[in-house]
Design goal:
By secondary structure, the protein is mainly α. It has two domains: about 260 residues, MFS general substrate transporter like domains (Growth Hormone, Chain: A, Up-down Bundle), CATH 1.20.1250; about 230 residues, MFS general substrate transporter like domains (Growth Hormone, Chain: A). Helix content is about 75%, strand content about 0%. The protein has 24 helices and two strands. Strands 1-2 form a two-stranded antiparallel ribbon. Keywords: Membrane, Transmembrane, Transmembrane helix.
Length: about 550
């Protein structure tokens, strides 16, 4: 048995989590379309509907995430990361060649293909990261999801602010960043991100909670740092360079956690002479305990519900809380409640993100980069807060996670109504509300799916849920926002169009508010239906802790 396998599995697990954070910090490039959409629109003389359909093509790439889901159970994590890295290099690389005018604008259908490739590249990255980390930290799914999805939310602001600081918001240089940086980061993560053995003791669970608190603090510091720069802006070249250097140091600072874990392992080896004799036995016992738990318990810490009766009556129909194949999940009402409510949340949120450049101009804001950054940063706060808060209330009171989705949906409806009424500062307020609520929806739905339908086929289940991104983008951005905007817009020379005034998107916002209210009702229904399973999670965890603590003290 190798050194790192025997003495420092936690160090390698945390190093993998840090690399996962870096991958997520660069995988939100799908949300940055507004930063260079105007350049594509003017170069190709597109109408708003045609431009929106390009953004839909970008999101349709996520539909092919099913391939990543299928591959996640068959290919190792490094291979999945490499596929995403290479696909992103090609997809965004061709867009850069067009926008930088290195080549003539491609035919419209070819641009659709390369935007689709760019969108699909992130599904491979996200699948590799989420599936691996959720399995590595099964008893802290909320914080894992919140932190990882939080950095996805920050990635838009990271790219936007770095481009603003170094390249004065040049769309061509922005695209070269989207081409090169994700490729380099994924190549780094290939060496560290992989599944590891599980920790089963209460002490290990508490240590995980402490480390996740550190990740949360660092992420919040990064978010406030980006937010401050968004309002201050670039004053001179030296200031901009210092900003970028400090940002990179902050992004690297989570490395302190695996370094500390490796240091602890080294001290055990260096200063405890008998550790070599005791450690293999302890590791073996821990592994045997974990394997027994895998065999005799449902994978998401749920107690078996009438297991013997279920086997006798219908062996092929697992109950909610047990492992489901995708087809078994799709036979349940709970899956479709989660699926459609997810569509109402992410579809409307994507419509705002994809059209933010035109929404800002319609309300009289020539520079929309601040709104893009606001959506990104508040999306981060929504993700990271909902992950930790939902986990806290689940452990303390058994509160069903879907309840937080319901709260986000009704708040999002309020944000859309504010923008429909064109209240003073509504674009600022709407950007904050939509970003935060969209973040809550993404972060909470990830552990909900694993808790209702298990982890065994989670890679595919996750990517089926993510189908809502292209579907929602097509319905709310491509059809709804595109057609209604063009109906209000006036033609411009060269074949494009433009619209200025609050009337441009009023009906769009009203319809999306109604969709959010529908999503709220579905989330409330799912909360009611899943209350028993979350009560059992709460009861099981509460009953396990005293006995596990006694065993640890006895050793």
């Amino acid at each position: 048995m190798g050194y790192h396998e025997t003495y420092s599995p936690n160090g390698w697990k945390w190093l993998g989590f840090v690399s996962a954070v870096w991958v997520q910090a660069i995988s939100g490039n799908n949300y940055t379309f507004s930063n260079y959409s105007d350049a594509i629109k003017s170069l190709m003389n597109l109408t708003q509907l045609e431009l929106n359909n390009l953004s839909v093509a970008k999101d349709i790439g996520k539909a092919f995430g099913l391939l990543a889901g299928l591959a996640s159970d068959r290919l190792p994590t490094p291979v999945i990361l490499l596929i995403g890295a290479i696909e992103g290099l090609i997809g965004y690389g061709l867009q850069w060649l067009v926008v930088s005018q290195k080549i003539q604008p491609l035919p419209y259908w070819q641009m659709c293909i390369f935007l689709c490739m760019g969108g699909n590249s992130t599904t491979w990255m996200n699948t590799a990261v989420l599936v691996t980390c959720i399995r590595n930290f099964r008893r802290n799914r909320g914080p894992v999801s919140g932190i990882l999805k939080g950095y996805v939310g920050l990635s838009t602001a990271i790219f936007t602010d770095i481009c603003s600081a170094l390249f004065s918001d040049n769309p061509a240089k922005f695209l070269i960043m989207l081409t090169v940086i994700p490729f380099a980061v994924c190549l780094t993560a290939v060496f560290f991100l992989r599944e590891t053995s599980q920790s089963v003791s209460v002490a290990a669970e508490k240590e995980e909670a402490r480390h996740f608190a550190i990740f949360n603090v660092v992420a919040v510091v990064v978010a406030f740092y980006l937010l401050a720069y968004g309002f201050i802006g670039s004053t001179n070249q030296v200031f901009s360079l210092v900003f970028v250097i400090i940002l990179l140091v902050l992004l690297a600072s989570p490395l302190a956690v695996p370094v500390y874990s490796f240091y602890k392992s080294w001290r055990l080896v260096r200063f405890e002479p008998d550790v070599e004799r005791r450690e293999p036995l302890l590791v073996q016992e821990a592994n045997e305990t974990a394997e027994a738990a895998e065999r005799n318990e449902v994978i998401n810490d749920e107690p078996p519900v009438a297991v013997e009766e279920a086997v006798v009556v219908e062996k092929s129909r697992p109950v909610i809380g047990e492992d489901h194949t995708i087809f078994e999940a799709m036979r349940t009402w709970d899956f479709w409640l989660l699926f459609v409510s997810f569509l109402c949340g992410v579809g409307t949120g994507l419509a705002v993100m994809n059209n933010m450049a035109q929404i800002g101009l319609a309300f009289g804001h020539a520079d929309v980069s601040i709104f893009v950054s606001l959506i990104s940063i508040w999306g981060f706060f929504g993700r990271i807060a909902s992950g930790s808060v939902s986990e806290y209330f689940l452990k303390k009171a058994g509160t069903p996670r879907p309840l937080w989705n319901a709260a986000s949906q009704i708040l999002m409806a309020v944000g859309f109504l504010l923008m429909a009424l064109a209240m003073p500062g509504c674009v600022y307020i709407g950007s904050i509300i939509v970003g935060a609520c969209y973040g809550v929806r993404l972060a909470v739905s990830v552990p909900v799916a694993s808790e209702l339908f298990g982890l065994k086929y989670y890679g595919l289940l996750y990517n089926v849920l993510i189908l809502n991104l292209p579907i929602g983008s097509f319905l709310f951005s491509g059809l709804l926002a595109g057609y209604l905007y063009d109906a209000e817009a006036t033609p411009t020379p060269g074949g494009g169009n433009t619209c200025v005034g609050s009337h441009c998107y009023r009906l769009v916002f009203i319809i999306m508010a109604l969709a959010s209210i529908l999503g709220f009702g579905l989330d409330v229904l799912l909360t009611t239906r899943s209350k028993n399973i979350y009560t059992k999670i709460f009861t099981r965890r509460k009953s396990k802790k005293p006995s596990t603590t006694m065993e640890s003290n006895g050793q």
